[in-house]
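quick one before i forget lol
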Amino acid sequence: MKKELIALTAIAATGLATTVSANEVAEPNVDNAGGVRTAQTEPAFNITDAKNEPALVEKETPKPVEVKTPTKEEVAELGATAKQTQEDADKAKEVLDRANETSDKAEKKVADLKQAKDDAQKEADKATPEAIQNAEKKVETAKAKVQVKEEALNSAQSLKAESDEAVSNQEKIVEGKKEEIEKLQSAVLEAKNNVQLKQNILDGTKISEEKKSAEEALEQETANVKRLSDELAKAEIEDEKHSQKIKNAENDLAEAITKVSTSNQSISSASEKVKQTQSELIKAQENLANQNPKNTIKLTDSFVEVWKELADKHYPYNYETQKELFEKYKAEQSEKLKKIASESEALNQYKSNEQDKDRAIDFEKTTREQREELSLFANDLYNQVRKQIGASEAVVTKGMIDLSEGFSDFGKYSDFVINSQSFAFYTVSNKTKTISNMDEAKRLIYEGFKRFLFDYNYYTPYYDSSTQSQGVASNYVLGEKNKKLYFALWPYLYSGEIGFAWSTLRADLVEGIPNFDKTVIKPSNSTQSNTVSNESALTAVKTAEANYTKAKVDLEKAESEYKEHLLIQKDIQNRLELLKSTPFKASLVKAELAKAQKLQIEAQKRLALAQKAQDEVMTDIKFKQENLDKAKQELVDKENALKLGKDKLQQEEAELTKLQADVSAKAQAVSTAKKALQDAQEEVKLAEKELADLNGAHTRLKEAQAELEKAEAELKDAYKAQNEAKVDYEVKSLAAGQAKTTYETAKAKFEEAEAKRLAALAEEKRKELEKAGYQPVPVVDGKGNVVDYKAEKVTVGTKDDKTYQAPAKATNAKAEPKKQLPNTGTKESNLLALLGASVGLLALAGKRKYR
């Protein structure tokens, strides 16, 4: 039975598979009998990626087929078939996934090789005879430049060789002078000893002691000669190592000098970029200003940060007790403020209003409306600054205008004067200067406020014993930054000078001012500037500001790198100078050995003199005195000669130092020439590489074309395998789905038939129980179907007597079948009918689809 089931399922699957062949790439040709004859093929690159292709197998709506109820065994066999077909479909899916992956890789390879071929084609297009000829000329030019640089290097090396020779000759002269000095020093010592001996001879005493002392001195000097000879051998080994360290330091110095030069060039480039971006920023701001003539005050971030620091930070030094430190700190802060102020000042320029130019004003007789308008204009500038720094904004009130009109009456408004902050924006020393219109008045206010903000003299740190405040301007602008302020501005005349002054008052202090009007004055249409916005101009300003900021950061980075390389160069130079200033030990030991040898000779001479002196003890005293005088004169002569020799040695050493400095300069010139030669040689290499690339461009193009054709052939094979795998998967997947549907349908029919069979049996049992006089109690399954009945004995009686028994309730229980109802047909006939339905469900019509 199982074999028959598998065979029938295979027939259904085969019918599905033969509907579409995995090797077909077009509509199959079918003969009159319905069999597949041939398949038409198309070029490989019309094949569609199987992952993105619609289903190659199309389903048709299954035709209703009458299916007989299957047996339990048949249902189990259909379940096994469904499981097996699903496993086949899963394996086919794995094959398809691998085919998709292979196809992806092949596609990417073809795309990469197409790009490589296109790149090779571009290079081949560039490799014209003219381009090759130009490249050859470039090689020749670069080689000629190398020859020039080699000649320059040879010249520099020749000049250094001459300087080295001059130094060597001068060193010999100095060494000769040193030898002369040593001889003169030896002669002076010998003369001194001779004088002492002559004196001893004259005295007639200590002759024997002198001889003994001379013998001991000779023994000591002989031992020194032996010791220094041993030290010389060790010193020569150490000097060789020291010489190598000097060479290494010189190489490091040359490399450091090159880096300093390169970083210095970077600073120049970065500086030019800063200038360029700053110019672009100014142009963008001017363009924005033309679009929006509202007068604004813009502060740089660094300006804002320093001002906040000035407002919040007290002096670190006390003026009375630390005056020197105070003045030094004040000077440092002033320089810092001066630098950041100049950056902010460049961003702010007054914008004239043509309408204001036509509005006349008499400075000595300003109207209240004019003072209100000018106060609003000044208050707007004041609030722009406070807003950027994070302070609260001030407002112009009628009461402040009233106070400004009588501000000179200190008696009347003494409390106001004490509790307010006032400061002149700007004054004009020229007595003939007049203001004729509102535009000139606003310009004077704007320029005065600008000067107040950015002239560092206005906020140079000053000392206040009570608050130790940092600066005037920052204190006035930032003072009471979290309080509500009232603001007013008024014109004034003083000694022929004209100007404007402003005052602020804390809102909580107005209670002491009689009848103070707190009404806020708002700008009217006539006092407002044109504020037409221009998004494009504003965007340009923001872009220019970002570019300018980046350029400054790049400049700071370049300057930092330059300083770092400069410090490294200085460290190496100090190390080299220390190495050069450290004398070679061998020369020192040689000098000491030579001195010891000379002292040994002098000790021998001294001993001979002592011996001779001992022999002359008996000579005439007058003769001895003459010898002593003669010896003293010889000593004087030799000391004078020694002094002259030392002076000459000093002159020659000075000349040697000068020549050594010249050698250092020549060495630097050689290093520079070497670097220039290396750059020229590198240029030759680049030119030769360019020529070689041009000459080999067509060969590389052919190679790229061949690789591309090979990859396209591989892609064709991959597409073919991919489509075959997809067809196989869809066939098996559909077969698995149909087998599952067949199994679930059969299972449902079997369960339905089984429930009916059990219900029929239960109904027969119920009738039999009732006939036997029992009360039937139904037994139901989990779905609520009655599958059996239990017997309960019926007792006749009433509810009031003990013989009464209530009817039993239905119970949920699984009833065992008591007997098998007859099935119609055999297992084989039922299964064949069911599989016939499956085959009907699997009826397919499909074709290959390609783009």
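fyi The mean pLDDT is 76.
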